[in-house]
Q: What sequence folds into this?
């Protein structure tokens, strides 16, 4: 099964941009989308998701809370939290659930780094 | 040394002390979150203060320590012996470096290497994974200076050194450390080396990061820090001394050269330049100009650059532009020799610190207020004298004048006594300031000997003159170490005799009349007089007959004799040839004495009896024969007149009954060696005196005066006479000998006296 | 794959790094070098090298041919000398 990345962001534009970047960087991976935390959990029930890219600033449950939830059930899943707000506290909270922090707007370089690391993790967990 | 630096050193020492206590407390209670918080804040503050000056290795060590404590605070790093030991060592280094800065003006040459190693140990505590190993010399000591070496002497903008040691699992988070380094502006040098020794080839994990990256850049610090924003906890950023600073530092001690300007001073000057440059109304300009000039001049003077301050003062007369130009010139001219007047002010910096020097005092503001009020009253009282003089000149009746003068004298006397006491009290410090250092000492001593020791401290709120308190540390330390080394038995022995395994050392202070008593008690094996008797004879210190005639208490006091050592072999801690006689000498230097009390099997207590202040003593002046002598009031229990018929001759001397007790009576004239004086009058004037634990009555011929005065310790020829406690100056210029009753009575030449019960 | 070595290569044939070498290449490079320690590494065509790849070279110290095609590495990092 191809590696699947789930992008969660309440902005459709942001999801489009994210998906485009993903296809450029990892052409053989698949992309799934969700607009909020609840939708994200629904997607995860339906299909195998290997990597998650979560926007921090969302109505309802924010990206860090969602990351914590995901981490609780998926110990090794590569998770990134994306935010324009580079605050020490947010970085620390992301770290505490073992999620990578990515600044917004997403750049190809930053995403590439995360995806490389994710691939590495997945290989390690798989073996 | 300038005020800013002095303040910094003061605060640093305070912080080191309080952080040490907190760390020791943490050792006993690692879950005490408040203590962890306090230690973190201490290191944080230390780092901030050091950062105001130019000490890169110190700063980066404190930064690493702060990171470690931050992690401990967050719960991600265990508060264990490794962290505590490391933090205590860091505080030790900080203390030593503060001393070096105080005496030499710079950190010691080893600071770089030492700081690197310590900082490295913090980082390895912090990094996760089994690959992390304790940093030792195989890591990069002096990484920054090594990297900067080729750039030495090259002029340019100020440089920053960065050490980036990525976490070993950083690749899994998608980090590319070199990728970040690529983004650093103004790169001048980069080096990549293994962070810890490599594991064997077969075990090489290509995805575990084991690198330490160092770089130098001359871009602004903020820009550099921004690049490493997301990995701040793995990065140390350090300012490098500029080439001109290095030239100055190695330039020797030409008296005219001043140190490079401190960042705070430069910042203040720069701010004034900005203020001056702002255009404004003519009226406010004048005020602004004045304020700027004053601010600049004060700052420069406090930094020891009074020549520069004067230049500014002169420029002020020529208007804001001239002043601004002068300040700017001083700023850009940082490394230049300051004007000649500064040369004299730099002298103090190289003075070595005497062990007894008390340079600064933390003073209770209320005490200063009281002092100021007294001075005010004194001024008023003195003014009254001028008025009295006028009355005398106007021919007023002498009798009335005399009474008024006596009143004024009494008033001024009262005030000056209060003033003296008040001023002296400024120097009063609670003993806690010396007691608190013992937590660490006891811990280290106990650890070193493999003994378990509990330290109990009592009465630390008791106060004494700062000079005394500060000189207490050495002798007390010796006594404490002695107690731990020789006094306390080891755990096995203690268990056998039913004592708790942990030995108990009690450090206590209490008031005793005008003085204080500081005691060290242990619950160890006690001093065995029989053992001392043997030892003293073996060592040839006393003849066997002399020893046989001494009672147990006297024998125990022999431990203070020079040449005496109570251990079979010199103990691990107590030092070689440093005996208790040194402690006795120290007490005597402070105007006091030592005593010992011990019970075999139960423990020993050593007491230092010290004056509370180097202060006014209340002295009673009495006459014996044709001369006057002084006796300290606190030795005198009471003064009575007894009919001579109540003084009876008993075997070997005289005695009388006072309050139901028989008290021997001596005539002062006879004690002083004049046996020819006839008895005078029907009554005897007796001073009941307590000395050396005995009560006696001393007959004096007359009572002359009570005075408050400073008693100088006996010196010179006077000092070699037993029984002389000191001297003081009387108002008519005479020198008064102040007697030490204990000394007189102990003098072997005194006629035999009645045996005590 | 940016780490290239001809399958039928005899011992001593260089391992070539081409284009962008991401983190994954580190493992491949490491196993190739460990298999044949005498093989030199040609990094002239590698345009961008991930830290992990550089670390492999630092650790295993193969002979390195030419100047790094990655300008940053070429400019700032000394080629790890052969061990």
A:
């Amino acid at each position: 099964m191809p590696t699947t990345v789930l992008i969660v962001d309440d902005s459709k534009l942001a999801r489009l941009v994210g998906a485009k970047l993903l296809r450029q960087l990892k052409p053989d991976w698949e992309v799934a989308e969700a607009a909020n935390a609840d939708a994200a959990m629904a997607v995860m029930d339906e299909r195998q998701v290997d990597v998650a890219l979560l926007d921090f600033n969302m109505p309802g449950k924010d990206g860090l809370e969602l990351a914590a939830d995901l981490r609780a059930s998926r110990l090794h899943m590569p998770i990134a939290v994306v935010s324009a707000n580079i605050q020490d506290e947010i970085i620390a909270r992301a770290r505490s659930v073992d999620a990578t922090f990515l600044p917004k707007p997403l750049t190809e370089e930053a995403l590439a780094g995360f995806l490389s690391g994710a691939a590495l993790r997945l290989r390690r967990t798989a073996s | 040394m300038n005020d800013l630096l002095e303040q910094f050193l003061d605060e640093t020492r305070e912080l080191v002390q309080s952080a040490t206590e907190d760390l020791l407390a943490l050792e006993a209670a690692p879950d005490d979150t408040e203590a962890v918080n306090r230690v973190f804040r201490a290191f944080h503050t230390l780092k901030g203060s050091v950062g105001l000056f130019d000490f890169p290795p110190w700063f980066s060590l404190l930064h690493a320590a702060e990171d470690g404590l931050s992690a401990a605070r967050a719960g991600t790093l265990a508060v264990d012996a490794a962290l505590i030991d490391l933090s205590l060592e860091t505080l030790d280094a900080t203390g030593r470096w503060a001393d070096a800065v105080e005496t030499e003006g710079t950190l010691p040459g080893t600071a770089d290497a030492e700081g690197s190693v310590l900082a490295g140990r913090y980082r390895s505590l912090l990094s996760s994974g089994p690959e992390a190993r304790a940093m030792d010399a195989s890591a990069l000591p002096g990484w920054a200076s090594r990297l900067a070496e080729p750039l030495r002497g090259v002029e340019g903008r100020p440089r920053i050194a960065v050490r980036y040691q990525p976490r070993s699992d950083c690749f899994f988070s998608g980090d590319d450390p070199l990728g970040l380094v690529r983004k650093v502006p103004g790169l001048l040098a980069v080096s990549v080396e293994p962070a810890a020794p490599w594991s064997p080839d077969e075990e090489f994990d290509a995805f575990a990061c084991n690198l330490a990256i160092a770089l130098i850049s001359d871009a602004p610090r903020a820009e550099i820090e921004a690049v490493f924003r997301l990995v701040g906890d793995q990065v140390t950023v350090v300012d490098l001394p500029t080439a001109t600073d290095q030239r100055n530092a190695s330039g020797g001690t030409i008296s005219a050269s001043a140190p490079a300007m401190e960042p705070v001073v430069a910042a203040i000057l720069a701010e004034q330049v900005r203020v001056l440059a702002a255009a404004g109304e003519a009226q406010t300009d004048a005020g602004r100009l004045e304020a700027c000039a004053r601010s600049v001049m004060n700052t420069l003077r406090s930094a020891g650059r009074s020549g520069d301050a004067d230049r500014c003062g002169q420029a002020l007369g020529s208007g804001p532009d001239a002043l601004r130009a002068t300040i700017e010139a001083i700023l850009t001219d940082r490394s230049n020799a300051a004007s000649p007047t500064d040369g004299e002010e730099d002298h103090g910096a190289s003075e070595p610190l005497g062990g007894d020097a008390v340079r600064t005092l933390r003073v209770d503001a209320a005490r200063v207020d009281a002092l100021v009020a007294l001075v005010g009253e004194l001024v008023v009282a003195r003014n009254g004298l001028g008025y009295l003089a006028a009355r005398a000149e106007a021919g007023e009746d002498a009798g009335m004048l005399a009474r008024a003068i006596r009143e004024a004298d009494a008033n001024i006397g009262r005030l000056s006594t209060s003033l003296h006491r008040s001023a002296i009290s400024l120097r009063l410090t609670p003993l806690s300031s010396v007691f608190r250092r013992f937590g660490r000492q006891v811990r280290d001593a106990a650890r070193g000997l493999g003994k378990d020791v509990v330290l109990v401290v009592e009465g630390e709120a008791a106060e004494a003159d700062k000079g005394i308190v500060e000189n207490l540390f050495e002798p007390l330390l010796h006594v404490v170490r002695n107690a731990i080394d020789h006094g306390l038995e080891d755990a096995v022995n203690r268990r056998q005799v039913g004592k708790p395994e942990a030995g108990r050392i009690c450090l206590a202070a209490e008031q005793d009349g005008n003085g204080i008593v500081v005691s060290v008690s242990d619950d160890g094996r006690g001093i065995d007089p029989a053992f001392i008797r043997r030892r003293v004879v073996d060592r040839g210190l006393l003849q066997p007959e002399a020893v046989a005639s001494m009672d147990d208490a006297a024998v125990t006091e022999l431990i203070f004799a020079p040449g005496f050592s109570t251990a079979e072999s010199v103990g691990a801690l107590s030092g070689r040839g440093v005996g208790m006689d040194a402690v006795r000498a120290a007490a005597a230097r402070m105007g006091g004495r030592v005593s010992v009390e011990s019970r075999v099997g139960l423990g020993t207590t050593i007491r230092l009896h010290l004056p509370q202040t180097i202060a006014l003593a209340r002295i009673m002046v009495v006459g014996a024969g044709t001369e006057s002598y002084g006796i300290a009031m606190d030795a005198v229990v009471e003064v009575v007149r007894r009919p001579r018929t109540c003084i009876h001759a008993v075997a070997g001397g005289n005695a009388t009954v006072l309050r139901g007790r028989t008290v021997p009576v001596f005539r002062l004239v006879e004690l002083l060696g004049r046996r020819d004086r006839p008895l005078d009058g029907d009554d005897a004037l007796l001073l009941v005196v307590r000395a050396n634990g005995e009560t006696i009555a001393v007959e004096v011929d007359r009572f002359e005066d009570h005075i408050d005065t400073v008693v100088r310790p006996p010196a010179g020829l006077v000092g070699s006479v037993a029984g002389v406690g000191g001297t003081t100056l009387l108002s008519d210029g005479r020198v008064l000998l102040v007697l030490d009753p204990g000394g007189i009575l102990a003098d072997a030449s005194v006629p035999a006296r009645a045996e005590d019960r | 794959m940016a780490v290239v070595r001809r399958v039928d290569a005899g011992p001593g044939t260089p391992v070539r790094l081409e284009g962008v070498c991401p983190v994954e290449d580190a493992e491949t490079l490491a196993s190739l070098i460990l298999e044949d320690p005498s093989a030199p590494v040609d990094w002239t065509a590698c345009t961008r090298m991930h830290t992990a790849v550089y670390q492999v070279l630092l650790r295993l110290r193969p002979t390195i041919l030419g100047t790094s095609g990655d300008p940053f590495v070429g400019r700032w990092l000394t080629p790890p000398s052969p061990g």
Notes: Chain B has a mean pLDDT of 78. Residues 221 and 328 of chain B are 23 Å apart (CA to CA).
